Amino acid sequence: MPREKQILLKLCFFYPEVTVIVLQMWQNLPSEGVKHILSAKSHQGKRQFLLDGKVRKRDKINGIFNTILFEPDDLKIVKEGPEKRRRFLNQEISGFRPEYHYILRDYEKILNQRNSLLKSIHYEPSLITTLDVWDEQLIQTGVRLMNHRIRYLHRLNREANNLHQILSLGKETLSLSYLNNIIDSLEELSEIKKLYKKRLESSREEEISRGATIYGPHVDDMIIQINGKDARRYGSQGQQRSAAISLKLSQIEIYYDNTGEYPVVLLDDIFSELDEHRRKSILSLLNKTQAFITCTEDILNDGEVSQENRHVIEIVQGQAQVINNN
């Protein structure tokens, strides 16, 4: 089975809009002598994932096949609201920290239950006596989530800035900071449980009125700055694109340090609107790992990728043609 189908499998794994036809692909996944067959299919209108022929939940497959995907939509991490950045954090941390997925799942369940209770209290005030139990669960799980995010952002801040400095020829500094409504600075981290409880207690009346939880990691954000200015508000299109690329491709070293293996990198139209220096810098970085690149122009003639390390397929009028296979 052609290795290019890894891209399709990755897409159907994360994105619900991928068609059923794509779900028929599968791929052998070798890793340090270990071989698995990972596949996807449609069953009664629902998507299923199989590991070695057995149906598995998505969280059971995390870590089997580590990949990094960059697509044009990733610009929204920089350009749009906090939800996009929380999704980025959740996906990337879950990739090499499978326990994070379970913590996130538990937190979302507790949050939904607590929100339902807040709505009920509005009509049946006596239920307020049960809120303390949910507060404690929310605090315990929420703090674990925030600790994971803080540790991850500490490493990501360093790696993403290193790459961004290369892409910008040292002219720009990329910095990331963690924003939540529990603590005002990392110096308060040791007191985070107490502060979290205090926030929940002081906001009860407002939360009951709204029927929603105000404080917690579900409203976190990651602030992205270029040379000290908010990239979302003040960054140019080119700066925002470079920042998004730095965020995604800096994962290569983070994944390697956490798993001992470099991930497969999937790049969809990453080179459009990039100058020659940025293109060469990205291609040089990709020499560490296997990469799949889709683009509308030839970007391999600059010598950054040797002939023996490239495999080019051209799509002409819907037909795939192998250009070289060295």
Could you say how many structural domains there are in total? Answer: 2
Please report the total strand number as a whole number: 12
Order of helices and strands: HEEEEHEHHHHEHHEEHHHEHEEE
The name CATH uses for the topology of the largest domain is Glutathione S-transferase Yfyf (Class Pi), Chain A, domain 2
List the helices and strands and how they pair.
Elements: H1 5-14, E1 26-31, E2 34-43, E3 46-51, E4 54-56, H2 58-61, E5 67-70, H3 76-79, H4 82-96, H5 98-123, H6 131-167, E6 174-179, H7 192-202, H8 204-210, E7 221-226, E8 229-230, H9 231-234, H10 237-249, H11 251-259, E9 264-268, H12 276-285, E10 291-294, E11 311-316, E12 319-325
Parallel strand pairs: 5-9, 9-10
Antiparallel strand pairs: 1-2, 2-3, 3-4, 6-7, 7-8, 11-12
Helix pairs in contact: 4-5, 5-6, 5-8, 6-7, 6-10
Protein model, in words:
The chain has helices at residues 5-14, 58-61, 76-79, 82-96, 98-123, 131-167, 192-202, 204-210, 231-234, 237-249, 251-259, 276-285, and strands at 26-31, 34-43, 46-51, 54-56, 67-70, 174-179, 221-226, 229-230, 264-268, 291-294, 311-316, 319-325. The chain is α+β, with helices and mostly antiparallel strands. The protein folds into two domains: 1-64, no CATH class; 66-325, RecF/RecN/SMC, N-terminal domain (Glutathione S-transferase Yfyf (Class Pi), Chain A, domain 2), CATH 1.20.1050.90. Strands 1-2-3-4 form a four-stranded antiparallel sheet. Strand 11 (311-316) and strand 12 (319-325) form a beta hairpin. Helix 4 (82-96) crosses helix 5 and helix 6 packs across helix 10 (237-249). It starts with a helix and ends with a strand.
